[in-house]
Amino acid sequence: MKQKHVIIVLFTLIVSSCIASIGSYKSASLTVNREMDRALAMTMREQKSNIISQDTIRTFNRHLQIAELRGKATIAVDARSREFRAYARCSEATIFGLSDQKPALALCVTTLLWALYAWHKRDNMPSDATESSFGGLHFDNVEGRFVTADGTQIQLTPMQQRLMEMFFNSPSHSLTKAEICDAFWPKKPDASETLYTLVRRLRPVVEQNSDIRIVSDRNKAYRLEVK
């Protein structure tokens, strides 16, 4: 997966998390308004007069099924319609606490895990550039081929091609033996000899067509080095 695709997925997860959180908040706010309207309707049916008293407020709060609203809601007369209205004197934090943030939380966790995965795999991600060059050797990301300075395509076996792509996708142009073996032979207990053969056959092809040589680093890693 290319870097731009990783960023797109990460951005999508962040936006989805925000949308889910805002949606849950609005849903909770709507639930609060409906609950107050319900409690107000029950209170006014029980009350015999149109005068708001302390008993009216107590009755209203008793009918509220959402415990967080009790003592924080009040009744007032709407100046325009001249009708009784219920208002919640609670903060945004209270409504946020009443909202179901589990979907948003799940998306946040997924976003965090994806970010950690992307950070861990950053060195092995293909570059978004259409072409990358090193030591007189050019790799065309679009066509997936290596060419020399004069544009001649280098003939590589599939495994040699894949290994060279891994070298070019690494910012340091170096790979540990473990990284290569895990990518090529994940089920093989010891692929050292197989890796040695692959590198030995790749070396002359690379050195004859570029200014690059493949260097062994204490038999623990390989790197591309300009001659």
Description:
By secondary structure, this protein is of the alpha+beta class. The chain folds into two domains: 3-124, no CATH class; 133-226, Winged helix-like DNA-binding domain superfamily/Winged helix DNA-binding domain (Arc Repressor Mutant, subunit A, Orthogonal Bundle). The chain is built from seven helices and eight strands. The protein has helices spanning 3-46, 54-63, 92-98, 102-120, 158-169, 177-184, 192-209, and strands at residues 73-77, 84-88, 131-134, 137-140, 145-147, 174-176, 212-217, 221-226. Strands 3-4-5 form a three-stranded antiparallel β-sheet, with helices on one face. A three-stranded antiparallel β-sheet has the order 6-8-7. A two-stranded antiparallel sheet has the order 1-2. Strand 1 and strand 2 (84-88) form a beta hairpin. The radius of gyration is 33 Å and the shape is rod-shaped. The model has no long low-confidence stretch (mean pLDDT 85).
Q: What's the number of helices?
A: 7
Average pLDDT, to the nearest integer?
85
Class from secondary-structure proportions: alpha+beta
Query: Strands of the biggest beta sheet: in what spatial order?
Result: 3-4-5
> Which ranges are low-confidence, i.e. pLDDT below 50, for 5 or more consecutive residues?
none
Span from first to last CA?
31 Å
Count of beta strands: 8
Give, in order, the helices and strands. HHEEHHEEEHEHHEE
The main pleated sheet reads as: 3 strands, antiparallel
Shape: rod-shaped
Strand content: 15-25%
Assign a percent range to the helix content.
Answer: 40-55%
Computed CA radius of gyration, to the nearest angstrom: 33 Å
How many individual domains?
Answer: 2
